[in-house]
């Protein structure tokens, strides 16, 4: 509970950083998809993308947390999926500075490099093409966000609820600001990637621990943790 269990604050800090990084990551993907649109429809595409991401986070939160609470094989599956998320994040973090800049300009509708255009170097596309690309990305990244938050929160229900609520708020209200923040301070995203990798490995170990004997690994795994997850 609040103020009693020190591990709660560790889980809460991980949840907040994961939300921050994945909300910014999702926003950059939306910006990249919308960057090739004409200025009069770009805002509409970004709004559709952010609203879809918000709704999808709520939907996945309702089903994913219940599934993960069953432990065992579902925890292993969730951890493996998060390892895939880490690989995707790594690839996105190594995207060219120019592409990321185009996405940031599109999200903010601002000409940051003073070249006379907003995201003017992005390939042209239609609103339909951009929206399809955005929705597909939103489905994947919203599930990623919910899984990562649930894994980081562990068995702290308060941290889980706070994290899921924060992820919805960040996407609905501050997505473009966070994208600019991560564009400026790239190291935050790398720290977030490291934490998600940590959460993924811990989830796999806890799930596998329900089936096989795994020795204690400091910070990552203790044998009783798997039993507690299954008991839930």
Explain what you see.
- By secondary structure, the protein is mostly helical.
- Helix content is 77%, strand content 0%.
- The protein is built from 9 helices and no strands.
- Helix 1 (6-34) runs antiparallel to helix 2.
- The radius of gyration is 19 Å and the shape is elongated.
Write the layout of secondary structure elements.
Blueprint: H1 6-34, H2 39-68, H3 73-93, H4 97-108, H5 127-153, H6 157-173, H7 175-184, H8 186-208, H9 223-231
As a percent range, the share of helical residues equals over 70%
% residues in beta strands: under 5%
Radius of gyration: 19 Å
**Overall 3D form:** elongated
Beta strands, count = 0
pLDDT averaged over residues: 77
Number of helical runs? Answer: 9
Distance between the termini: 17 Å
Tell me about the largest β-sheet.
Answer: none
**H and E order:** HHHHHHHHH
Structure classification:
mainly alpha
Question: Low-confidence spans: pLDDT under 50, at least 5 residues?
Answer: 225-232
In short:
It is built from nine helices and no strands.
Entry keywords:
232 residues, 77% helix, elongated
């Amino acid at each position: 509970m609040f103020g009693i269990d020190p591990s709660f604050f560790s889980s809460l800090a991980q949840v907040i950083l994961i939300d921050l990084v994945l909300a910014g990551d999702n926003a950059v993907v939306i910006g990249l998809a919308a960057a090739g649109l004409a200025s009069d429809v770009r805002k509409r595409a970004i709004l559709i993308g952010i609203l879809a991401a918000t709704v999808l986070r709520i939907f996945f939160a309702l089903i994913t947390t219940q599934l993960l609470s069953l432990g065992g094989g579902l925890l292993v599956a969730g951890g493996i999926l998060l390892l895939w998320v880490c690989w995707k994040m790594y690839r996105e973090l190594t995207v060219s500075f120019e592409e990321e800049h185009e996405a940031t300009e599109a999200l903010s509708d601002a000409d940051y490099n003073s070249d006379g255009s907003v995201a003017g170097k992005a390939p042209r596309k239609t609103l339909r093409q951009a929206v399809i690309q955005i929705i597909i990305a939103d489905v994947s990244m919203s599930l990623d966000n919910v899984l990562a938050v649930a894994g980081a929160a562990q068995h702290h229900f308060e941290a889980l609820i706070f994290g899921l609520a924060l992820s919805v708020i960040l996407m609905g209200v501050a997505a473009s600001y966070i994208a600019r923040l991560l564009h400026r301070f790239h190291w935050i995203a790398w720290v977030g990637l490291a934490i998600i990798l940590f959460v993924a490995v811990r989830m796999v170990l806890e799930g596998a621990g329900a089936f096989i004997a795994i020795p204690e690994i400091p910070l990552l795994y203790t044998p009783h943790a798997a039993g507690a997850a299954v008991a839930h």
